[in-house]
Amino acid sequence: MPKTKNWQWYLEENSEFETHMHALSNTYFSGRTQFQDVGVVESPVFGKMLILDGDTQSSQADEYIYHDTLVHPAMIMTDRPKKVLMLGAGEGATLREVLRHNTVEKVIMVDIDKEVVDLCRKYLPEWSDGAFENSKAEIHYMDAFKFVNESKEKYDLIISDLTEPLEDSPSYKLFTIEFFRTIKEHLTDGGSYVLQASTTDFHNLDLHTVMFNTLSKVFKVTRSFSSRVPAYDTMWGFIFCSDKNDPLLITKEEVDKRIAERIKGELKYYDGITHLHMFNTPKYLRKAIGKQTRILQEKDLLK
Known about the structure:
The chain has two domains: about 10-60, Spermidine Synthase, Chain: A, domain 2; about 65-300, Vaccinia Virus protein VP39 (Rossmann fold). Helices cover about 30% and strands about 30% of the residues. It contains ten helices and 13 strands. It has helices at about 65-75, 95-100, 115-125, 125-130, 145-150, 175-185, 205-215, 250-260, 270-280, 285-300, and strands at about 10-15, 20-25, 25-30, 35-45, 45-50, 55-60, 85-90, 105-110, 135-140, 155-160, 185-200, 220-230, 235-240. A seven-stranded mixed sheet has the order 9-8-7-10-11-13-12. Strands 3-4-5-6 form a four-stranded antiparallel sheet, with helices on one face. The chain has a two-stranded antiparallel ribbon with strand order 1-2. Helix 7 (about 205-215) crosses helix 10 (about 285-300) and helix 8 (about 250-260) crosses helix 9 (about 270-280). It is globular and about 55 Å long.
């Protein structure tokens, strides 16, 4: 047997019946802000990691997978987006990726927890890579629900990188049908909305299917897509929404063409082939979404 160090371990509960364990080589910060528990730690496998309320948010080794998936398909599917609104995304990596697109003139980021943003800027500067100082970026530290409801502006793309809508989470009220309708009112004609939408593994996809069916009441085009994020130890789901743009109808050649036209430098994860992989969802997920749709229709909850 190989020799092992006496590691300190971080245990993350993936579901009621399984746990993912990370050995830790360093702890940079552990504490609580006004809104949530925060950990900034280091893993010998994944490098530095941000943990909020016991859930891994991103890791140094593979954050590009998550952020490429969240940002670039929606940016590519939206016709030359100039104004982008981001909800959450305290690490700054979502902001970093949006700013890579040469069509962007203004990005507004809204995050309720300034302490988390400050911790990320201090301990995880690689995530933002100078994005917070970009002249196109405008940062607001406030409740995203309040910001959206009070905003008079329209946006070409709205990106939601909020924590999952658990009942004790500050983001809970941002996942209701009423809020999604408000989001739609703040989109330009031909605009899009994209959000992180929990796990899509076969045994842990109820939250994703609920979110999908809620959004399908609001938008004409609602598409589930996923990428495997190794630090999460699961397939992670996202949902793309629009009334005009459909990511199932674009070719891999057109995706690559738009990337070449709009983005300077090479993306680590996303391209035309990866786009097809993301949006061609597995049969079990399509069946789960369809099953819940029928249940809601029978209960007269899905109009």
